[in-house]
Amino acid sequence: MVDHVSRENVNQVVDNGKGKSAPEGGGRGYELPLLLFGGFRTLIDRLHARLATEGHPDLRPAHGFAMQAIGARGATASEIGRRLGVSKQAAGKTVDRLLALGYAERADDTTDARRKLVHLTPRGYAALARSAAIFDELRAEWATTLGADRVRDLEAALRNVVPPETAFRLDATSWLGAP
Question: Which of 18, 46, 55, 74 has fewest C-beta within 10 Å?
Answer without folding.
Answer: 18
